[in-house]
């Protein structure tokens, strides 16, 4: 069944979009991430123009994360104070990111930049995740029990000014590191069309030292609002948010996420992280191959602006 | 429907015109043509459309009489940029680009005989008959390869067509041709020209007009997104949030 996308100005198979939404939703439910990093490259792969794929991907992320946020909020797993600090950085970062995106679009380098960002970010994060989880698995096998929690270490982060008490996270740290983390992920979120949960979660655990119990909820808090900011700015300044595309992806996505989440409870933490890391790496490698492979046609046409 | 009615009046016209227009000298137009529709609507289920161009000539069409019919379709101008990929340190990146500011977004030509057989080059150039006759002036990179790539890629995605569909002739005088618009067709005003060619000259021509419009939901969405981008952005956020929340409620219970 073909459906016409009014902003992308093309028609695509609705079932294909529902299927992609379902598949990505299933994986995101399984791994507890938004799945934007899989969705945007897939959309580009089926021929959606990169600017529309990125903007609509951000839009879809809101829908994919909002129910998770509500559930986490009810359980009291959101450190709102930390969330607001992250968000402050996130708003600035994503606003700058959209400007950067608009500039790249004028220069005709959006496709390259999006692919490049993906390869570098996903490659790095994927490698780190695989390495960390494999270590954890090995450690668990050796000791025969659960990995011992990390001792609270004092690093250079604790010497920074503007300290604030984050009660839920049981932290007394400077607001600079979380604001910077939010800023960086905000930029990536605008350029890549992702929520950034897959980067935010490790950053919160390893950089900020937040307890795992509040990490998911707080990252969802940041993801939902940053994705909303990206959606608004992309719609306003670039004009590439396709609501028909978003809704089709969400229709498949929310269904898939429930199945994925049910299955995810049966997997152990380290194995899940290792699998997710491998998946992230695979996407990075696929996109890298697209950049280094000799193109079939050296020429490409596009609308001039 | 309209086509049948038209043909009917045309046939009646032939038999009845002598009596009806007795005082004036009897002049049958050398060429008459019309379109099956003057509006192509892009709906939510739009996958492309085709429009029938049909008409009749005074004389017989064909190689014996030397008369040919050429059908030409023009879309609104669509500035297009052609980019060439270059290898920078092992990566293929967009390199030099040529911008074609004044080329039609859609162009199709169909004829009973290829125009290069029927018309001299000068006429083809002034009437812009055939892709070769289109003035493709570029800003930026000037290499002929950009022009060639533009021609190739535009034909590949169906927005430029050269003899993609035939001009069919029935009974020697009635002709028809189909113009196919792909799903990526631009909205705007389209001009369809029908030319009658005799002895390497264009002896008659008729211009017809067609409008491509978005209608229904697709139109409203595109219109809101363009006219009120902030409202549209807020709407997208709320709809996505609502869909996500609703989905989780439905599937939790189900």
From TrEMBL, chain A:
UniProt xrefs under InterPro entries: TM_pro_TauE-like, TSUP/Inactive_protease-like
Membrane-spanning residues: 12-38, 44-71, 83-104, 110-130, 171-192, 204-228, 240-262, 274-292
Principal place of residence: membrane
This protein's UniProt keywords: Cell membrane, Membrane, Transmembrane, Transmembrane helix
GO CC term (a single one): plasma membrane
Similarity field: Belongs to the 4-toluene sulfonate uptake permease (TSUP) (TC 2.A.102) family.
Protein name: Probable membrane transporter protein
Lineage start: Bacteria, Pseudomonadati, Pseudomonadota, Alphaproteobacteria, Acetobacterales
From TrEMBL, chain B:
Alphabetic keyword roster: Membrane, Signal, Transmembrane, Transmembrane helix
Transmembrane region(s): 230-251
Range of residues in the leader sequence: 1-20
Protein name: TIGR02186 family protein
Native source organism of the sequence: Neoroseomonas soli
């Amino acid at each position: 069944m073909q459906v016409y996308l009014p902003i992308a100005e093309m028609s695509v198979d609705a079932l294909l979009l529902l299927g992609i939404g379902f598949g990505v939703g299933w994986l995101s439910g399984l791994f507890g991430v938004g799945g934007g990093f899989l969705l945007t490259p897939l959309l580009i792969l089926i021929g959606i123009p990169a600017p529309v794929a990125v903007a609509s991907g951000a839009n879809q992320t809101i829908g994919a994360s909002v129910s998770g946020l509500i559930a986490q909020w009810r359980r009291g797993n959101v450190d709102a104070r930390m969330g607001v600090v992250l968000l402050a950085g996130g708003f600035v970062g994503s606003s700058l990111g959209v400007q950067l995106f608009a500039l790249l679009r004028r220069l005709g380098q959006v496709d390259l930049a999006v692919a490049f960002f993906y390869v570098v970010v996903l490659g790095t994060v994927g490698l780190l995740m695989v390495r960390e989880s494999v270590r954890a698995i090995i450690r668990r096998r050796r000791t025969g029990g659960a990995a011992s929690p990390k001792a609270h270490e004092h690093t250079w982060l604790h010497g920074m000014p503007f300290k604030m008490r984050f009660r839920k996270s049981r932290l007394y740290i400077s607001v600079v590191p979380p604001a910077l983390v939010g800023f960086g992920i905000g930029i990536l979120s605008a350029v890549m069309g992702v929520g950034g949960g897959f980067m935010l979660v490790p950053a919160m655990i390893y950089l900020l030292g937040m307890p795992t119990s509040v990490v998911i909820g707080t990252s969802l808090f940041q993801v939902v609002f940053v994705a909303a900011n990206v959606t608004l700015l992309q719609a306003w300044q670039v004009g590439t948010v396709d609501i028909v595309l978003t809704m089709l992806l969400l229709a498949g996505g929310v269904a898939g996420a429930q199945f994925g989440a049910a299955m995810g409870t049966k997997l152990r933490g380290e194995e899940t992280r290792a699998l997710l890391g491998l998946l992230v790496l695979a996407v990075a490698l696929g996109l890298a191959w697209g950049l280094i492979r000799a193109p079939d046609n050296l020429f490409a046409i596009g609308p001039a602006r | 429907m309209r086509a049948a009615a038209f043909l009917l009046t045309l046939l009646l016209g032939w038999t009845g015109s002598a009596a009806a227009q007795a005082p004036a000298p009897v002049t049958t137009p050398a060429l008459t043509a019309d379109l099956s529709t003057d509006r192509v609507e892009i709906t939510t289920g739009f996958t492309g459309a085709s429009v029938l161009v049909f008409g009749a000539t005074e004389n017989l069409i064909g190689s014996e009489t030397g008369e040919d019919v050429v059908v030409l379709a023009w879309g609104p101008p669509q500035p297009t940029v052609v980019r060439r990929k270059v290898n920078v340190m092992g990566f293929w990146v967009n390199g030099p680009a040529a911008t074609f500011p004044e080329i039609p977004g859609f162009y199709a030509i169909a004829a009973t005989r290829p125009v290069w057989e029927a018309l001299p080059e000068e006429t083809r150039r002034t009437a812009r008959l055939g892709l070769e006759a289109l003035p493709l002036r570029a800003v930026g990179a000037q290499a002929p390869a950009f022009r060639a790539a533009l021609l190739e890629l535009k034909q590949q995605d169906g927005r430029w067509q050269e003899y993609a569909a035939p001009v069919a002739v029935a009974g020697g005088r009635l002709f028809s041709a189909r113009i196919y618009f792909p799903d990526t067709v631009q909205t705007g005003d389209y001009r369809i020209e029908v030319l009658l060619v005799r002895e390497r000259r264009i002896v008659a021509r008729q211009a017809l007009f067609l409008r491509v419009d978005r209608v229904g939901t697709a139109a409203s969405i595109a219109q809101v997104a363009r006219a009120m981008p902030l409202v549209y952005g807020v709407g997208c956020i709320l709809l996505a949030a609502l869909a996500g929340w609703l989905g989780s409620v439905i599937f939790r219970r189900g």
